[in-house]
Amino acid sequence: MKKFLFVITVAASSIAAQAQTAIETSKFFDNWYFGLGGGVTAPLSCDPMFPLNGTGNITLGKKFSPIFAVEADGIAFFGSHMANGERAGLSANGHYNAFRAISVGVNGVTNLSNLFGGYKGTPRAVELSLVTGASWIHGFTPHVSDKQSNSLGAKTGFAVDFNLGSTKASTIRVEPYVLWNLSKPGNSYGNLAFNRDGAQLGLSLKYIFNFKTSNGTHHFKTYDVGAMLAEISRLNAELAKKPTEIVREVPVEKIVEKPVEKIVEKTIVKETQLAPVVIFQLGKSVIDASQKPSVAMIAKYMQNHPTSKVLINGYASPEGNAELNQKLSDARAKAVYDMLVNTYKIAPSRLTWKGLGVTDELFDENDWNRVAVFIEQSK
Question: Region 181-208: what's the mean pLDDT?
């Protein structure tokens, strides 16, 4: 009973320490996006402001959280201008080049809407982000060597994202920015400075596609910790109505040297049902994010009690074919076992699992009988 109360205390304290809403963990290949677009630029010095020059843009990024993303950004500057008495757009050897300059860089994107307004589980229709980064700039200037045409650059700007549709898979981004030339061409990267005479004021329009993630959406997903706590409390109340300790005698046969004699030793095995349970969806053996804290509670308990051994029993509700339900109960118990071993590094020798097929006796609600329960075993 003391151990039972300890687990409840650990569960309550660990959940109370969290926010009511938590972000589901994402995998490395989740929350990537790809964008194509174009726009116009003009000298930040406004001398002259017109005519404007066109740009093309390509972007590949990954969101590490609803607030922060990192992206690779490429910009091609079209058009021409006068340099060294000739029209730029020519390479150093005098051959025509379609580009006036190119910029390749890495940007950090900070979602200000989520930073200050919080993330609600799905992107807003309109969001504002801060974009900052560093880049390499190469200008195509007549009769100037490549070394002198290379510059260190920096990008500062804002991104206004219009997230489209119910899935938010597509985004239209309007991005005003300044591309700074920090090192003047020809000075061997010396005298780094944010100088408006060497900067371009730009405005781009991009179409961005947000790739689908492992959670089935195109964005980060949240789950309600408060609702999960209420569900666990309700299950604990159900468990409290049933016996929490089962003591049984298990005969163990021991062969001694005299072949005709047997000595039967009786070992008392004490079994205590621990409070957390893992509930599964109908016909599923995958552990939902809302149920993972129950597994974490057991892992924490076993870490705090290094000699404890736990039996994981899987069950299925009465609906459906008995043979299929037996396999389903096996898979549910095995899924919990795998998470404890692989995620929380509990020694396999301390865990056993088995599927017990169909039951309607654990809980009054059939939906709650699709579970895995934990039994602590001690001699």
Answer: 77
